[in-house]
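Weekly structure sync, notes
Attendees: PL (lead), two postdocs, one rotation student
Agenda item 3: pending single-chain targets
PL asked that the sequence for the first pending target be pasted directly into the notes so everyone works from the same version. It is reproduced below exactly as submitted, 133 residues in total.
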Amino acid sequence: MRKLSFWGRYSYLWVTLGFFLISVAGHWLFGWFTYVGEQQDHHAPIEVSQYAFQMLEGTFENWQSEFLQLMWQVGGLALLLFVGSPQSKEGSDRVEAKIDEILRRIDPEKGEDVITKLDEDYMGRHTDPVEPT
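Predicted structure, written out during the meeting:
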């Protein structure tokens, strides 16, 4: 089994982070143009601190109503899957035990070799049982 680099293993995270940063930067950039236009229409001074406050307020309002809910659904699911909660296993342990038993019964010697090789190839996955020390 091919080992992926840190960047390869988390490629979905990097793409998502890139989309997030681009969207936030675009939101703030176009917000700046809108703010400057409004200030000029009212003959008011352009203040970066006032702009930053308005943009932070608008960003957090959007995050409260949309992003926090979605982030918890995705992040919470990923966290529970990572720690190996019973809900995240979806019965795969039972299926794996059945397949192991079939391999042992078909050819006891080769079956154990296949099981051992697969266990070595996939060692360290969150679904592996914790071995007693």
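Discussion points:
- The two ends are 27 Å apart (CA to CA).
- The CA atoms of residues 37 and 43 lie 10 Å apart.
Action: rotation student to compare against the earlier draft before next sync.
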